[in-house]
Structures are given as C-alpha cells and as structure tokens.
Write a structure and sequence with these properties.
single chain; 585 residues; mainly beta; Pectate Lyase C-like; Immunoglobulin-like; 4 domains; 13-stranded parallel β-sheet; eleven-stranded parallel β-sheet; 2 helices; globular
C-alpha cells in the first residue's frame, strides 16, 4: 500500500496554487544566484528558498541534502520523488529541532524527509506546521520523534510515514484533511489529531492508539485499514477523548485490544460507528467511558464484530443509550492478509447501512472498501481455510479426530483422505469419507498397520482447500492398540514476496502437541550467521501464524541489500530447515 505517485506541477494548479518564478537546488549545479536553472542550481535547498519570493517554486534534484529548511510563505518545494530526493536532518535533537519548517500556504511534494532517530522526548520533528494552508503530497517522513507536528489547517495526502515515534501530531486551531497515506509502524502513538477528516489511509499500529482524537467537536474517520503488527494486546484502533459528533464508518480494524475506545464523553450525539469490521480484538470491540452525569447517545449499527475476546460493546463508566441495529458476528472472509478485501460470499457484502451506497451504486459493504469512499473490485471465490489444530484420540474401537469448525459463510463439507503410507497425496483413490462436521470417527481399522489422514475443506462452489498437515496414528507394537499422534510437523513457509523491499511476510505452522500455548522463536541471520533480528519470541497457540519483517535490525536500523536467512525454534529446538530470502533496497 505504499503510494509512490508523483503529482505534476499541472496538478498543483488544481489546488489553487500559481507559482511565478522557479529556483533550483542540485548537487550538479554551479551554485550561481538566483539559481533559476538546473545548470546554475544552488548547492543547498535553503539557498534556493532564500532566493525565492512568495508565489515561486523551488525544485530539488536527486540525492541527499544534509540541512534544515525554513520555508517562506506561499512557495512550493518539490523534489524528484520520495525515493530520489532526501533531506536529512543533522543537528542534535532539542525542543525546536526541525528538518522542514513550512510557512503559510505552501506545497511540499516529492521528498523523503528524514530525521535522526533518538527516541522519546527528544522532539525531533520532520515537518513542523505552525501556519495554515500547508499541502503535503507524495512525501516520505521517517526516523523522527514527530514526523508531522503542528497546529495549522493542512492537507496531508499520499504520503508514507515510517519508523517514527509519532507519525502525525496535529492539535488546536486547525482542521486537517488526512487522506490516502501509509502510516506505518510507530513506536508510540500513530496519529494524534483534535478534529478533522482521516480517510482512506493504511495504518499500522504497534502500541497505544493509532488515531487519538482529543477535545474535538467534529471528526470523521472513514475507509481506513488498521492493521496491528506487534504488541496486539495493548493497541486501540481509535481512541476518542472528550469528543462529540464523531463519525467512524467503513473502517476495517484488524487485531489489537480495542477497536474504538470512547473516553469521558460529555454530551449526547457523541458517536456514530457504522459499517466497520472490528476483528481479532483481545479486549472489547467498543469501550465507552462516560462522565458521571453524562448519558452517551451512540449509534452503533451495521458493524461486523468478529473473533472478539470480550464484549462487542462494553460500558465501563457512566451510562449510555445505544441505538444498535444490523450488527453481525461473522467471519468477514478476507481474500488475503495484505489488502483485506472481501471474498465472494462474504457476509459483509451489501450488509452495511441501507442508506449508504458503494461506489458501484449497490448497498454499502461493511469494511474499509465499502461506502462512497471505498473502492470497486472483483470479489474472488477462494476455497475455505486449511483445517488445523487437530486433537486425536483412540477409544475402544474408534479413532477420533476433532478440529475447529470452518467459519466461512459458504462452507459445505470436509473431505477425509486416508492411507497406510506416510507422505501420500490426496486423490480420488484414497478419499475415505465426506462429512459436514469437524468430528470424524473411524471404526474401520486394523491393529497390524499404521494410518495417515489428510483433511480438506470444501465450499458450496466445490472449491477445495489444500490438505491439512498429515495426521498419523502409529502402532507401538504388533497387536497393540495404536496411539494417537497429532501432527508434529512444525512448518516454516517461504517468505512472500521474495525478493522484497521493504517488507515481507513469513508464515509458519505450529502443531498442537504438548502444553499450549507453546514457545516459538523466529530469528533472522545475515550471511555470516550473525543474528540481526529476533522477529518472534513468545508463546503462541497451535495453528497457522504470520509475521511481517520490515528490513530493520534489533536496533531499528535499516539493513542493507543482501541475502538473509530465517530460522524457527519451537520449545527451543529447530524442527525445520532455515529459509533464504533476499532484501533489495
């Protein structure tokens, strides 16, 4: 979801900016004042800005510029692209250390603005917007305590925020418009904003809240994808503090502790939450904390609350009158774990508020792709998930296998394949049974041979999943009753994509053997065998898991291009071979 589009100068005219003269900064120019061509370009960006007047444009060539920029009012600062033009801060951090400080009514486009990572309370800012009218397009801001900090009204569109302590911190006196950005993992808060519009963003969370609204009277949060990549038991998708008239609609919130956390609500008509998918929360889907004397009037309707450990809606303090219709509790059936689009036959299709419509004119889907701010795409018809987490038993004359029942809305049945040879492939010849439950009982077996089972899931359209791990029932001796043996196949899959830049996903499977949850560790090594990143080190339950690596080492620094290896340790032992992957910068 990293957006790399470069808006041309012609497009800038569409937002009302008309620039008079042009000035240039480049490592290839002759540094001749007033720097009005690439041939005479200034050797620093600040020189070109100082030669400008309101209404001018400063173009910046490719390469790295080690400086801190103070812009004047009403100018444009435009680089080649966020991948080519880099402004790197050089000063030691302090309360006023800023890489780029805009003036009033400026455009900043096509730059990579990079601080130097010092960690909390150092106040190293990428862009400090203290004036109104800033428009920030197609930029990347990274390695800052505050990537974007300020108070003024602004438009923030199609940018990448990556590896910052806080990505966006905008408070007081402004109404920002935040759209189509990739807000990647931050060390603390992802976005703090008092009021404004936050739409169509991809937002990764690590800890605390990803969007925190404070003392707001009007805030719209719509069509955002929230995805939590680590510390899943602490993070909230949206935290609303002392807010009234907030609209949260058509978002997908995947993982974390709480989807929406409403704090200290003082007035009626506080919250409208509709058409959201809130899935995989370790706490509650929606928390409400009202003042002692306040009764929250909230409309929470047409949402999908799926795989929620706690309550769908939990009132902790004060009281609430909640209008709640059309909510469902179903597997949303995502087509993948990258874009989180919906599969065909998802219960979230055309299940949103009937007064809201998708871009194709049909009733709104639930989730971030639905509603007028969503997208139109082709629903794919995928097979059900691969069955896993088996429990095997042998009681009297029955071999029993039990596993979690499929959650897909279009699920139909299970195919059971059996063989006396390990390593077999499922086929028509060894199809042993077809059942519509997740409990299989086999009474036709003999005690002079071993048995091996594979199980697949099939939907109503006859799409069949890949087979499960092999489930063996092994004899311990001739004539003895076989002992059940659940799959011991710890599986480490090849990362995808590979080669990759800057992220890749590693999937792995843990069988249900011994105490649960089980200790698992995934470690990444360089070619010399040196550990560069401990990616996973925790206890997890059996089943299939996935983790994303961002190409950073244990200290949060970017690793260079090259070949790396990753290994999985289960209960301290390595049961699989190391896998090879290639990072390309």
């Amino acid at each position: 979801m990293r957006i790399l589009a470069f808006i041309s100068a012609v497009m800038l005219l569409c937002v009302g900016a008309v620039f008079a003269d042009y000035h240039y900064a480049s490592h290839e120019g002759s540094d001749e004042y007033p720097y009005t061509s690439w041939e005479t370009a200034a050797d620093s960006i600040q020189k070109a800005i100082d030669a400008s007047s309101p209404g001018d444009t400063v173009y910046v060539g490719s390469g790295e510029f080690l400086e801190h920029i103070i812009m004047i009012d009403s100018i444009g600062l435009i680089g080649i692209s966020m991948d080519s033009t880099i402004i790197q801060g050089t000063q030691d951090p302090g309360p006023n250390t800023v890489v780029v400080r805009p003036g009033y009514d400026v455009i900043i486009q096509g730059l990579h603005i990079r601080g130097r990572w010092f960690g909390g309370n150092q106040y190293y800012k990428g862009v400090e917007n203290l004036c109104a009218g800033m428009r920030l397009y197609n930029c990347e801001i990274s390695q800052c305590d505050y990537a974007l900090f300020g108070f003024g009204t602004c438009i923030i569109e199609e940018n990448v925020f990556d590896s910052n302590f806080t990505n966006i911190y905008l408070k007081l006196q402004g109404y920002p418009y935040v759209k189509n950005n990739s807000l990647l993992v931050s060390a603390d808060w992802n976005t703090i904003i008092e009021e404004g519009t936050i739409v169509n963003n991809y937002i990764e969370g690590k800890q605390d809240a990803t969007i925190y609204t404070d003392y707001s009277s009007n805030c719209q949060i719509a069509n955002n994808l929230f995805l939590f990549v680590s510390s899943p038991y602490e993070v909230r998708s949206v935290e609303i503090f002392w807010v009234w008239r907030s609209l949260i609609e058509n978002n997908s919130m995947i993982g974390g502790k709480t989807g929406i956390n409403l704090q200290y609500a003082p007035h009626s008509d506080t919250l409208i939450a509709r058409n959201n998918i809130i899935s995989g929360m370790s706490g509650h889907a929606i928390d409400i904390w009202a003042e002692d004397t306040a009764t929250v009037q909230a409309s929470i309707s047409y949402n999908d609350f799926w795989n929620i450990a706690g309550d769908d809606i939990k009132i902790f303090h004060g009281s609430a009158q909640i209008d709640s219709v059309g909510n469902i509790r179903s597997d949303p059936m995502f087509s993948d774990t990258t874009d989180y689009w919906l599969q065909a036959f998802s219960p979230c299709i055309d299940a949103g508020d009937p007064e809201i419509f998708d871009v194709d004119g049909s009733r709104s889907d639930i989730g971030y792709t639905g509603g007028p701010g969503g997208i139109s795409y082709q629903y794919v018809d995928l097979p059900p998930a691969i069955p896993d987490s088996f429990i095997v038993s042998v009681v009297d004359d029955t071999i029993g296998i039990v596993w979690p029942y499929a959650t897909e809305a279009d699920f139909s049945r299970y195919n059971i394949y059996r063989s006396n040879e390990s390593g077999f492939a499922p086929s028509v010849e060894n199809l042993y049974a077809v059942i519509d439950t997740s409990v299989f009982k086999d009474t036709e077996w003999y005690n002079d041979r071993n048995y091996y089972y594979l199980i697949t899931a099939v939907d109503n359209q006859d799409n069949e999943s890949a087979p499960s791990v092999e489930i063996p029932v092994i004899f311990v001796g001739i004539g003895e009753v076989p002992s059940p043996s659940v799959p011991k196949a710890v599986t480490l899959y090849q990362n995808y994509p590979n080669p990759f830049n800057p992220r890749t996903t590693i999937k792995y499977y843990l069988p249900e053997v011994g105490a649960q949850p089980s200790q698992v560790k995934i470690v990444i090594y360089d070619l010399m065998g040196k550990e560069v990143r401990a990616l996973v080190d925790k206890k997890e339950y059996s089943g299939e898991h996935a983790v994303t690596w961002d190409g950073l080492d244990n200290n949060g620094k970017e690793l260079s291009s090259g070949v790396y290896f990753y290994r999985l340790f289960w209960w301290g032992r390595e049961f699989t071979k190391a896998k090879r992957m290639v990072l390309i910068r």
